Amino acid sequence: MTGSDRDLVSSLRAELAAIDPPRTCDREAESLGLGSGLATREASVARLAVRLGRGTDARKLLQARRRPKRVHAGDEPASTFDWAAVAEHCRLAYLRGVFLADGSLSLAAGRTHLEFVLGVSDAPVLAERLGEIGLPASWRVRRRRGVVTWKSAETVVTFLRRIGAGSSLLELEARQVSRAMRGDLNRVINAESANLQRVVAAAGRQLEAISTLERDGRLADQPLVVRAVAAARRETPEATLAELAERLDLHRSAVQRALDRIERLALHSQDDPGDRRPNGRASGDRRRPRRVRSASPSLA
């Protein structure tokens, strides 16, 4: 991640850790979500542990001049979290604690990726609970640890909003919209550039073919539509087929056929039969030659 992305993730986690649940049940649920034997290197999470009564060792992080690599933040209370029996707000407080203790958010290369790293037996339980609140997640085992993952930016944003993220989440959404707009703009520009290159290349071939036919006098022998299309192409080399058709009040297909005929004729010299068949018809003429019946023999 870039420095700005890391700063955004840090500010988002600090914002979530600064939430002070007003209900006692929410405080207990968030403490249980932090897990047993919480170890953290973030001052914001250590302050949260102190507020929740888990700060026997977390004060070391707040009082030390040098930040220790990790600090133990107390043991989990004896009770376990009864997911099925608690209210929705308690579930969200619990998930906020789980995210601060075991979750990580990555914004690398414009992709939003959130995962929880837990015990192997805890991963499927968390994935099932997230599915119950409408946020289904996948899980797998990686390096003997259970990993619950979201790769959908929309799901990640919904989860962060539901657990209490505010201003930092707005900045994250603004970045995602900006990236999406830049991606769409780049695709449009690339498509337009490719189309323009094709138009320029085709116009160059057609102008060269028109000059060839004009030099050897064959252009004057062509039908009126072909000559009109050739003149319009020479006057407006940058025009598309649709623009030429609108200018000449013709169908686009008629303009295309005329230009194809000009290029085809220019491939062969005036004396070269080119793509004409032995019977004198052009290869594009699909009419079958008339069959001549032989005279029946006279009867003696």
Short description:
With 300 residues, the chain is an alpha+beta fold.
Q: What features would you describe in this structure?
A:
There is one protein chain. This protein has a four-stranded antiparallel beta sheet with strand order 3-4-6-5. It has a two-stranded antiparallel ribbon with strand order 1-2. It starts with a helix and ends in a 34-residue tail after the last helix. It is α+β, with helices and mostly antiparallel strands and 300 residues long. The protein has helices at residues 3-17, 24-34, 43-51, 59-63, 88-102, 122-132, 153-162, 167-215, 224-235, 241-248, 252-266; strands at residues 39-40, 71-72, 103-106, 113-118, 138-142, 145-150. It has eleven helices and six strands. The radius of gyration is 37 Å and the shape is rod-shaped. Mean pLDDT is 81; it is low at 273-290 and 294-300. The chain folds into two domains: 3-36 and 76-165, Homing endonucleases (Endonuclease I-creI), CATH 3.10.28; 179-266, no CATH class. 26% of the residues are buried. A hairpin with a 6-residue loop joins strand 3 (103-106) and strand 4 (113-118).
Name the features:
two-stranded antiparallel sheet, rod-shaped, 300 residues, 2 domains, disordered C terminus, Endonuclease I-creI, alpha+beta, 8% strand
